[in-house]
Amino acid sequence: MRCVDKTPLAIIAVTLAFLAGGFVFPAWLSLMVVSVIAKALVVMGVIVLMRSGLVSFGQGLYYCIGGYAIGLGGQLLQITDIFVLLALAATAGLVTGGILGLVMSRYREIFFAMFSLALSMILYGVLSRTQSLGSTDGFNVAAPTLFGAALAVEQAKLLIYVTTCMLAAIAAFVVHRYFRSPMGYAGIALHNNEIRVEYLGLAPRTVFYSNYVIAAVAASLGGAITALNYGHVGPEMAYWSQSGEFIFIALMGGTGHVAAAFVGSTVFELVRTYALELAPNAWRLILGGVLIAIICFLPKGLWSLTRLATRKERAAVAETA
Fold it and tell me: Is the CA virtual torsion 169, 211, 266, 7 positive or negative?
């Protein structure tokens, strides 16, 4: 019996629920939702890479490029329309990822991880020493408009919220379809045994290159949403700790499904928020403890809980049959 893919319907249902919630959520909750989704977009790209056996400690590079594309698009090009700005950020990530991917697709394991980290830190060093871009302080981002029409502050926030939810739905659907495509399955096969996949006639470098570019665009969009949400960009977006945060979230959520990125990002944001409130001097210790617990008891991430629940349900059905 063929299994019906319910993920697209689930994406639509969750998106509609959050879109409706945007009109009643308090400002702090809307801000947090957008922040969670922005990080989840980056983590989706990290998951794409991890499923093929690559761990990138430099996704902050594209996260920062997306944010600065929004800021510079408003300052230099006088672009304020939110859709044009997002397209500009995605293009910047696509072009940069397309160029660097030609080199990065040659490397594997620790070499890939360290090379990606080095590229991210180079960008951080350049931006932090560029006075015209605000140096280490960064600069503010202009408020977005809708088709050229200026909006009030609350309207602009609602526009960012709605656009973020729609963008997340589109990205989740595209990445989910990619996971179920031949290229997506090839990535998993490469993670298991690259040599055997090459014997089958597939070009591993092509798959790695595609995954790298997808991850670059996803991270750029996440950085763009963050810039719009907070109205500010800075070189710390490319710092190594930011890239490490994305790896942290990916490990928490797991790589079994596109929704794992959103689950991991949500749990991470909740734990960090309450840890900062309850123990401001030890919140990193709490975060580390949560990650260690997940690795020990759920090595495949929080999303693996759904598989455990499914197995128990099937076992219960089998017993009653």
Answer: positive
Closest to 256 measured CA to CA, from 213, 207, 307: 307
The answer on pLDDT for 242 being more than 90 is: yes
Say what the pTM is.
Answer: 0.91
Residue 283 — pLDDT band, cuts 50, 70, 90?
Answer: confident
Q: Give the amino acid at 172.
A: A
| Cβ-Cβ contacts under 8 Å for 247 (sequence gap 6 or more) | 46, 55, 56, 57
Q: What's the whole-number average pLDDT of the chain?
A: 90
CA-wise closest residue to 190 among 45, 43, 50: 50
CB-based burial, 253-270: b 16+ in 10 Å, e otherwise: bbbbbbbbbbbbbbbbbe
pLDDT per residue over 111-130, tens digit each? 999 999 999 999 999 999 99
| pLDDT value at 27 more than 80 | yes
